TrEMBL record:
Xref: PANTHER family: BLL6449 PROTEIN, OXIDOREDUCTASE AN1597
Keyword ATP-binding: no
A biological process term (GO) from this entry: methylation
Signal peptide, first to last residue: none
Residues forming coiled coils: none
Origin superkingdom: Eukaryota
Protein name listed in UniProt: Methyltransferase like protein
GO molecular function per UniProt: methyltransferase activity; oxidoreductase activity
Keyword list, A-Z: Methyltransferase, Transferase
Family to which the UniProt record says this protein belongs: Belongs to the asaB hydroxylase/desaturase family.
């Protein structure tokens, strides 16, 4: 069984062929008269969303044997949603605390994945590990309370995404660092999946990066209403 919803995608503007998209995650008071973002997104309506529970497909991650370098960390920080969300989403004046990400995106570009690897193994070892071993970033998503009915997570089948033409590198600027992620351009071929009524005892695992498939294995994701 499938449902439909509206998903937000980056507009395919000529601007992004020359200028990198960015968003400043900094309070507006610190950047007077500045442009907080040059991202232009739009709502794509009637996008098909497939319930994984009812799918006849078998979903799995690639082989994660000894050739893979795996590092799992649990981050205790919880992103708290502003009471005005989604009327005042990320980037708005009221969003002093970063809000849930509504747009289709990937958390890791090759550059950002390499920076994450440096944090795990150190700068001296990172280049050697990157070129001689398989590096994967596996992301885990678990609700704090369930069942999740409001804004569940949707992930896109990587086989339905053209990583060379549909992923646009974007700078997310914070006061302490700059993180590079991918925005996603729309394609009618994208196959989206979600877990209906996901509970706190159910954890979703999906691949955020794999250097064995540099331009393919990035799983776009987003929240939908």
């Amino acid at each position: 069984m499938a449902s439909t919803s509206t998903l937000w995608y980056l507009k395919d503007l000529p601007l992004y062929r020359d200028v990198k998209p960015y968003v400043l995650n900094i309070p507006l008071a610190r950047i007077p008269n500045g442009q907080r973002t040059n991202q232009e997104c739009y709502p794509e309506s009637s996008v098909k969303l497939n319930d994984i529970r009812l799918s006849t497909r078998t979903f799995n991650l690639d082989d994660m044997a000894s050739r893979s370098l795996l590092k799992f960390r649990y981050f205790s920080t919880v992103r708290r949603r502003h009471s005005s969300f989604p009327a005042e989403p990320r980037g708005s004046e009221l969003a002093e605390t970063d809000q849930p990400v509504q747009g289709a995106h990937c958390d890791y570009t090759p550059l950002e994945a390499f920076k994450s690897l440096e944090k795990v193994v150190g700068k001296e070892k990172a280049a050697k590990v990157w070129t001689q071993r398989r590096v994967q970033i596996i992301q885990a998503w678990r609700p704090l309370r369930g069942p999740v009915i409001d804004w569940p997570l949707a992930v896109c089948d990587v086989n339905s995404v053209d990583g060379k033409t549909e992923l646009i590198a974007t700078d997310n600027v914070w006061s302490y660092a700059v993180f590079e992620t991918y925005n996603v351009l729309f394609s009618s071929k994208h196959a989206w999946y979600y877990i209906a009524n996901q509970n706190e005892n159910e954890t979703s695992l999906f691949k955020g990066f794999d250097n064995a498939e540099m331009f393919q294995l990035f799983v776009p994701m987003r929240l939908f209403s």
